[in-house]
Amino acid sequence: MASRAGPRAAGTDGSDFQHRERVAHHYQMSVALKSEIRKLNIVHLLIWVLMAAQVTVSQLSLVSHKVVASPYQWEYPYLLSIIPTVFSFLALPRNNISYLVISMISAGLFCVAPLLYGGMEMFPVAQQLYRHGKAYRFIFGFSAVSVMYLVIVIAVQVHAWQIYYSKKLLDQWFTTTQDKKKK
User: Fold this and answer.
1) Which of 58, 75, 170 shows the shortest CA–CA distance to 118?
2) Measured between alpha carbons, how far is 105 from 87 in angstroms, rounded to an integer?
3) Is 155:46 a contact under the CB 8 Å cutoff?
4) 3-state secondary structure of 136
5) Mean pLDDT value of segment 66-76
6) Residues forming beta bridges with residue 139, ordered by sequence position
7) Secondary structure (DSSP) of 58-115
8) Angstrom distance (rounded) from CA 17 to CA 19
């Protein structure tokens, strides 16, 4: 063994590291994918909290509708998008395949579907804004449709990456399960 202060162990030139055990590739990938999914879940939680705050402030009339616009119809079902994130957080620590599958399916239903509907619902308002320069809803002085389209663009990317990484993680877990069954 080498020490910081002393000489190298006798009988070795430092090239004997090849025989050491290494972590299997699918375990390395699993750890990396879990980390990416956790980061995306945190970003989604941030988006969800902002959306929930806007809906709550508007519904409880805490501030004027001139400051924070009333929510669009698609924002209410999007609040259910917390469900896939909860299942995702529950699936990661113990490699729970069923929770991860539920998270992926519900992400399409509760996350992506309301965002697509929201893009279609707000399209006429966005068209009017960009053709005539008239906006009727505002969020802190900015056009509500512009702000919400920005939220949609970011959220669609976050959810697409969540589903993609979850699928890759699921494949890694199935590889591990299949390897164990073969032995």
Assistant:
1) 75
2) 11
3) no
4) coil
5) 90
6) 68, 142
7) HHTT-S-TTTBPPPPTTHHHHGGGHHHHHHHHHHHHHT-HHHHHHHHHHHIIIIIHHH
8) 6
